[in-house]
Amino acid sequence: MPASPDPAQSHVIVDDGAPTAADRDRVRALLGREPQAGYEIAVRRADGDPVVLRNRPVLDDGTPMPTRYWLVGDRETLVVSRLESIGGVRRAEHEIPPADVADAHRRYAIERDALVPSDHTGPRPSGGVAGTRTGVKCLHAHYAWYLAGGDDPIGRWVANELAAPTTRAAAATPGTGAPT
Question: What's the domain range around 38?
Answer without folding.
Answer: 7-169
